[in-house]
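User: quick one, fold this
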Amino acid sequence: MVQSEVHERKEKYIVPEAGRKYAMEAVNTSWRSYKCRFKKNHFYAYATDELRWENKPDTISAPQFQDLLNYWKCEKIKEESKTNRENRLLLNDMHTMGRKGFAILRHELQEQDPDKQEPSQAKVYKESRKRVPGRTYLTNPEKIEENIAKIDALESTQDGEEGNNSKDLISEVIQGPKSESKSRVPLYGKGVIKSDLKKKEKKNQASSGRVLAEYENRFGAATCTPRCVYDCISTSRS
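Assistant:
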């Protein structure tokens, strides 16, 4: 059944094989989010089935809606839901970005940087854990505040130490879940593994090398920032 559905979607949508894993994980996440919102808006929001039926959405048929109500009211399912909720509340280091992905956050931080450099893991961590004053959150911020304090302390000790400012601090402060795959990379979102970052790093190094060589060929030895080099090349080309 799953294979047939995948085949049907591959015929309907153009998904490159290189991005198939990410696309499937994104679809899975979206589906789970939809189910969560649907249950919140059409089950928990009303105290009785009578009210739920009065507010039944037009996007679902009556038989399917009845099946959902029966499923959600099943004692076994209610117990599983309660357990899952309690387990989630035990997580004490959750991001506060909502539905925004890490890729979008990284892009925004890179655009804000004067030299358009990619943000460090430490910066992404702190930005993704920001809390809006006055807003109520389900999780306690103590662990996050503790981690940020450790990161700030490590950053202050590295200030002025040549070659250490680019060092990633996240691995020294945060330990990922033991069940998490060793190939997964924190703060990059689903579908990103270490090999992806290595390929990107090699590609960026090759690109930077070509740009620097072109700059030195036209203007001499580079003495400015990488962003300045790119600006000079772009201006001369135009």
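User: anything notable?
Assistant: Confidence is low (pLDDT under 50) at residues 162-167, 176-181.
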